[in-house]
Amino acid sequence: MVEIANPAAIGRRPAQHAGGERSAVPGDAFAPLTTVTAESWRQLAERAIEPNGYYLPGWELAVNATAPGRTGAFALSAWSEVSPAPGSAARLIGLLPAISLWRACRIPLPALVSADPYGTLGTPLLDRDMACEAAMKLVRQARLSGAHALILRDAALDGATVHAFTEVLRQDGLKPKRLRSLVRASLDATGDAERVLRDGLGPKKMKELRRQRNRLAGHGAVVFQVARTPQQVAAAVEQFLALEASGWKGKAGTALLQHAGDASFVRRATMALAASGQCEIVSLHAGNTPVAAAIVLRHQDRAFYFKLGVDERFAKFSPGVQLTLDLTRHLCADPAIASADSTATPDHPMINPIWRGRFAIGDVLIPLRRNDPAIWLIHAAMRLRSLVRAPARWAVRLIRNRRGKPPAAIPPT
């Protein structure tokens, strides 16, 4: 018989093993996310074995503070046994913002789930020099919280982080279970931008886009701009929010600007990351009129294309596509960037033909105990939920397409 813990209690207090062993983590075994100092988090992000712009402290702490439905996450954390220097504090070597399965999916089973960072990538941060040790300690912390499973949502399936968790489980005679997988567009930014665009779109489409750009220039010189400093980003984010709200998302009531918590999060997050050189807002102008804008995060050598807003009055000129072409050139010209994650839906009609690389992500269930019948229940419940939700997502996309939303206005997320 499987004993089902109170789902609301998972992660709410530090737990103990039967023998009284308590976690080696400083403070609570599973503490509020805000108890992790931004400096230790920032240092871990610099050493992370795999980049994730959406789990940078400036971004996730802003999401956790005000984004509706995404606040109140807890920190599943791992710390080094030995401090890096005599007299210094233990070092943060692993971090995963997490919530209970009950809160995430309303499934009353004892599991923890990676918190939604508003960016469709939930890969935990692991120290590159101690990745397996960090993964092992995160698994231990999940056990201490009372959970029977840890679910990584939208994790990079082929990345070093999932491989580290797989190795840790193998040592315990366990295996991760893949719940869902998909691929989305990515950019290899190490090549020549014009070749990337030509190979992706073909000469005929490129000619058509040049024609549209020339027609757009009839409304004023077409200029691509990049806001980098906090002062520039503060102004550019307002421009982005206004553009996003002016389109189909505004009509649907889902634009960031229409919800105070969402608008507050994106303002705070972009400013915080701009201060550390990890956020840019790119925009395309026709004369003095902004026609498209997007938020781009940067972590290590990877960029993340968060959201796109366009002025749909210029839809016939494909402003979103035009901005993405210039963004591609911008990223390929930057030696610090090797790749870019579109963070788009699979088979996205706008970005897929332009960025021809593919990035595999998915949901991974990490069992925490051997021969545990609760794992079967959690696995079955999550698979059933995925099967039920898939037709609903398809229906929503179909309705939006039938409303005649122009391809250039479809944002990556």
Give an overview of the whole structure.
By secondary structure, the protein is of the alpha+beta class. The chain folds into 2 domains: 7-183 and 359-398, Aminopeptidase; 186-357, Aminopeptidase, CATH 3.40.630. The protein has helices spanning 38-47, 57-66, 101-105, 131-144, 160-171, 193-216, 230-246, 248-252, 260-275, 319-332, 373-402, and strands at residues 31-32, 74-79, 92-100, 111-114, 125-126, 149-156, 177-188, 222-227, 279-286, 289-299, 302-310, 339-341, 357-367. Strands 1, 2, 3, 4, 5, 6, 7, 8, 9, 10, 11, 12 and 13 form a 13-stranded mixed sheet that branches. Strand 9 and strand 10 (289-299) form a beta hairpin. Helix 2 runs antiparallel to helix 9 and helix 7 (230-246) packs antiparallel against helix 9 (260-275). The longest helix has 30 residues, at 373-402. The chain is globular. The two termini are 42 Å apart. Mean pLDDT is 89; it is low at 1-5, 13-28 and 403-413.
Summarize this, please?
The protein has 413 residues and is α+β, with helices and mostly antiparallel strands. It is 38% helix and 22% strand. It has 11 helices and 13 strands.
Task: List strands and helices in order, with pairings.
Elements: E1 31-32, H1 38-47, H2 57-66, E2 74-79, E3 92-100, H3 101-105, E4 111-114, E5 125-126, H4 131-144, E6 149-156, H5 160-171, E7 177-188, H6 193-216, E8 222-227, H7 230-246, H8 248-252, H9 260-275, E9 279-286, E10 289-299, E11 302-310, H10 319-332, E12 339-341, E13 357-367, H11 373-402
Parallel strand pairs: 4-6, 11-12
Antiparallel strand pairs: 1-2, 2-3, 3-4, 3-5, 6-13, 7-12, 7-13, 8-9, 9-10, 10-11
